Amino acid sequence: MPTVVNCPTCKAQVEWTATSKFKPFCSERCKLIDLGDWASEKHAIPVKPEFDAESLDALGYDEADFFKDN
Ligand SMILES: [Zn+2]
């Protein structure tokens, strides 16, 4: 079974595959909505500058798990 994540914008299930062009979003629309949220500073959660896939690995997460938690 493919890994499935939830679209951060609409929570639709999205297959985490090479062909999922907008992952973790389900569509370009949801991707743009999310970017718009960032631009308007709705996301108040501070992001550590060192936050990246490597630090997630160090904490025992993989990217798919990270997005599921959202
Ligand atoms: Zn969506």
From TrEMBL:
The organism's place on the tree of life at top rank: Bacteria
Cofactor(s) required for function per UniProt: Zn(2+)
Note on how the cofactor is bound:
Binds 1 zinc ion.
Ligand binding (Zn(2+)): 7, 10, 26, 30
Q: Which UniProt keywords apply?
A: Metal-binding, Zinc
Q: Give the InterPro entries listed for this entry.
A: DNA_gyrase_inhibitor_YacG, Znf_NHR/GATA
Q: Which NCBIfam families match?
A: PRK00418.1
Q: Which HAMAP family match?
A: DNA_gyrase_inhibitor_YacG
What the record says about family reads: Belongs to the DNA gyrase inhibitor YacG family.
Function recorded in the entry: Inhibits all the catalytic activities of DNA gyrase by preventing its interaction with DNA. Acts by binding directly to the C-terminal domain of GyrB, which probably disrupts DNA binding by the gyrase.
- Assembly description: Interacts with GyrB.
Name-wise, this protein is DNA gyrase inhibitor YacG
What organism is recorded for this protein?
Shewanella algidipiscicola
